[in-house]
Amino acid sequence: MKAAQAGDRSAYAEALRLSIPIIARVIAAQRNYGLEMDDLVQDVLLALHSVRHTYDCNRPFIPWLVTITRHRVIDAYRRRNKVSKNETAMPELPETFSTADSNWILEGIGDPDLLRNAIKDLPIQQRRAVELLKMRELSLKEASAVSGMTVAALKIAVHRGLKTLRARLTGHRAEPDNRLN
Amino acid sequence: MSKKTEDLIEQLAAAAEPVYCLGSPFRRTLIWFAWSMPWIAAGILIWGLRADIKALSSDVRWLIEEGAALATAIMAAMAAFCAGVPGRPHWEHYIPLMPLAIWMGILVQGCVQDWLALGSISFVLRPDWQCILDIAVLGLGPAIAITFMILRGSPIEPTTTTSLGALAAGSLAAAALRLIHREDNSLMILVWQVGAVFGLVFLGGIFGRRILRWRVAGAS
């Protein structure tokens, strides 16, 4: 280590390599608090590098190394605790986030593609009524003026159209509506 | 040893420039004292020595008190420098306690003596905020000097190191203030001067972890 302090790089690398078993033993003796051994060893090596000028050649090396290791393990444990204090352990991630955009139902009745295709398959009058009254949200009078259908015909067409859509999207067969036929 | 650890050793070894080693705590204490003296001397020159200094120089009690305050400053500085060196024995942190106990003891004994001589009138406490301010001003130079010096050590015990550093700076300022202020009431000295020193120690302890940090990537 004395040679390392003087700038001897190979002596320094050797000193670090020889320090690793001692560092590992100290970490193991401190039960490493569930931290990754390799991470801790590297952290101690970095710390040792930053304070290598504090080693006094007239004193034993091992107490110097052990003290640094012990303090770095405790600091790492404190750091981990600081982070984990602000975290909540969850068994699995929630399926969606709270924003409305992320809550689209991709399959089934809420699937926009499925709905678009079902509307396309409707008979022309029902499709026109659904588009004008439900998608463009026109009033019955406006829809009647645009389509040329009567208000009564529009009401019947939109009712049948919605019923057909519901049946297609949920997989149930539409029951015949005798009242409106 | 993992590949990453081996790579790290290679990197650290490649970056290993010669370093200027820390001197012994005793030598560093002498340097700190030498750096602090011009500041203290300037304070004494500006405010002036108290008029009865000649008479006090033959007062054994005053000399013991002054010596104990000075010894506390020196021992606390030495302990602060020891605390920044990993692997040094723990008992070294407590070396300033002995002169501190003598200093406190002589002041408490003075309080008792005053009480026996004057009765309850000796326990009348006047506000003396100027004393705290003077200690802060006189202690500023030594505090800055010791802060720079302890920053060179290891931050293994930051709170202890900065508290001891503050005790050193505060005690030196208190010893210097006894050469300036004409205040000899032991209770007043105990409350305002020593109180200010302990206030500095408290502040030093609070800011210890902020002042002394590991300069390691990802360290707290």
Structural class, from secondary structure content of chain A? mainly alpha
Instruction: Please provide the ordered H/E string of secondary-structure elements of chain B.
Output: HHHHHHHH
Q: How much helicity do the residues of chain A have? A: 55-70%
Profile the largest sheet of chain A. Answer: none
Secondary-structure-derived class of chain B: mainly alpha
Query: In whole angstroms, how far apart are the ends of chain B?
Result: 25 Å
Question: What share of residues of chain B is helical?
Answer: 55-70%
- Overall average residue pLDDT of chain B: 89
Task: Give the number of DSSP strands of chain B.
Answer: 0
Poorly predicted sequence stretches spanning 5 or more consecutive residues of chain A: none
Secondary-structure map with pairings?
The complex is a heterodimer of chains A (181) and B (220).
Chain A: H1 2-5, H2 9-29, H3 37-50, H4 61-85, H5 112-120, H6 124-135, H7 140-147, H8 151-170
Chain B: H1 3-14, H2 25-47, H3 53-56, H4 60-83, H5 97-118, H6 129-150, H7 158-177, H8 186-211
Please describe what this structure looks like.
The complex is a heterodimer of chains A (181) and B (220). In chain A, 62% of the residues lie in helices and 0% in strands. The model of chain A has no long low-confidence stretch (mean pLDDT 81). Chain A has helices at 2-5, 9-29, 37-50, 61-85, 112-120, 124-135, 140-147, 151-170. Chain A has 181 residues and is mainly alpha-helical. Chain A has eight helices and no strands. Helices cover 70% and strands 0% of the residues of chain B. Chain B has helices at 3-14, 25-47, 53-56, 60-83, 97-118, 129-150, 158-177, 186-211. With 220 residues, chain B is mainly α. The radius of gyration of chain B is 21 Å and the shape is elongated. The interface between A and B is large, with 43 and 36 residues.
